[in-house]
Each structure stands twice: as structure tokens, then as C-alpha cells.
Amino acid sequence: MEKVWVLKLENGASLEVRGAEELGIKRGDLCVFRRDFYEDMGVAGAQLPSPSMTSRIEDLPQVQRVAGEPERAEAADNTAKARADMAVVREWIEKLSLEMNPVNAHYTLDRKLLTVQFCADGRVDFRELVKELSHALSVRIELRQIGVRDETGIYGGIAVCGQVLCCSRFLKEFNSINVKMAKEQDLLLTPGTISGVCGRLKCCLKYEHDGYLELEKGMPRKGEFCETPAGKGRITDRNLLTSKVSVTFENGNVSVFHVSEITVCPPERHNSNSSDRNKNRPPEKNTPRNNNKNNPGVKK
Hints:
Layout: E1 2-8, E2 14-20, E3 30-35, E4 38-48, E5 62-66, H1 69-95, E6 101-107, E7 113-119, H2 127-137, E8 140-145, H3 148-155, H4 166-169, H5 179-184, H6 191-194, H7 204-207, H8 209-216, E9 225-228, E10 231-239, E11 244-248, E12 254-258, E13 263-264, H9 272-280
Parallel strand pairs: 7-8
Antiparallel strand pairs: 1-2, 1-4, 3-4, 3-5, 6-7, 9-10, 9-13, 10-11, 11-12
Helix pairs in contact: 1-2
């Protein structure tokens, strides 16, 4: 019986593989797998109940064996060679004046393929670069464009929360994020508050969004008037996580209350005086008008 595992390669890429149960694969093991025309090695991560990228388990690359000391030594040599060959990659990118930033290079275990990951603002025609690199390095070249979030996940780092970056630790898919999510979470719309290490909107804005929408249901809005134990004031700030609001009074003092301690005032009616005057005005008499003089089309 075969099981499905997620393997993470040295360059940060991940893929799903299948491996026989008899191999005794455990999380953290280095596994040698075969894919297409080459062999490569990766670190075993989570075990999946079924493939998520394809409908058939037979379509996944197959794990050949758990890596031993010979494979580990060979992988270390490949890493050193890939780092040295990055100088050649950068040299040819500069010669061809291509607007791209190479991130890393990765040799497969048998050195039949060199994968170069790069970042770019738009699409890049790298056909000439592939031809020159294949001739210079005498190996098959694969260029793969990645985003700035993928690049940050590869390098890793510490977020402002003190934890390892989500994209480097567990996040594998980058969902669409917009500024509206930050507004609905009452965050300051400044780059330092809503942007991550990669310079884009923080990924946590997305997977915390539903929770903040649920918390917001029982909270008053900013700008509303409310009655408090200290008198009437206007809500100028609120904390969705603690269910507390900051209330500013007419004298300028600010106090913090739990939402259960306040009562939101109904909106005041405008032009109440004019409406009262209209109530007291006597109704107009319906007197017939003689428009015969002004309307020549009416017969006398």
C-alpha cells in the first residue's frame, strides 16, 4: 500500500509524492524520489490522506528509498556547485540585459537538471538565457518565475508577531487580500501596520478576516453617540478583540468601557424645528382659480 507525502526541496519548492508503506517514511526523513527523467531528494513533511494536486495516486512521483549517507554527501556537493553556478547565471542575465532577479539554483540529485528560480515584475522572455546557460553549464536548464511572497518564504524570517513567517512555516497557498479586510479589522492603513516582510499585504489579514467579522457583529461603530456610566459621549475607537470602546466626552476626556456598559443612542432627527412648525401651520384652503384670462385655449 502506498501513502502520499509532501516533500520540500532545498530551493523551497514542494511537491506531493507517493511512497510504499514498507519504506517506513517518517516526518523529517530525506527521501529520494524519481520524477520524469531525473532523481531528486527532499524532506518529508505532512502525510496526506489522498493527492490534492491530481485525482490518481499513480500520477505522483514515486519515492525510491530513504536517503543514506552517500546521497546526503552527494546532495551537499550539488548545493555547493549550484551556489557557484549562480555567478554564471547572474553574469548572463546582465549580458542579456534581462529585468529579472535570480533567487536560487538547485541541482537534482543526479545533476541532470538545474532549476533556477527568479523574480520579475512582469513576463520575461528568457529563451536566449536558457540556451546560453545550457551551453555554459552543460546541463538541462529550467527557469521558474516566482512571486515576492514565494521568495520571502524561501529566505524565511521573523514576523512582527515574533513567530516564524507563515509563508515559510505552514502557508502554501496565497489567497487574494485587499485593503478592505484591514479596514474591517480596524487597523491603521499604514504600510508598517498592514504590510508584511515581503512588502505586500499580510497573509494573516485573510485567514483572520472571518473571525473579525464575527466579532464586529455585536460592536457599535465609530462616530456613534452612546450613554455611559459617566455620561453621554461619542465612540472614537474600539477594540474588537476585547469588546471595548473608547468614548470621548464634550469636555475632551476619553474613557474606555466594555460594550455591555454602554447604550447606543438612536440617530437624532434633523430639522425637527421646521417639522414642528409645519405641524402648527393651518391647512391651506382649496380655492378655485380662474385661469381663463391666462389660458387662451379655454372657452368662456
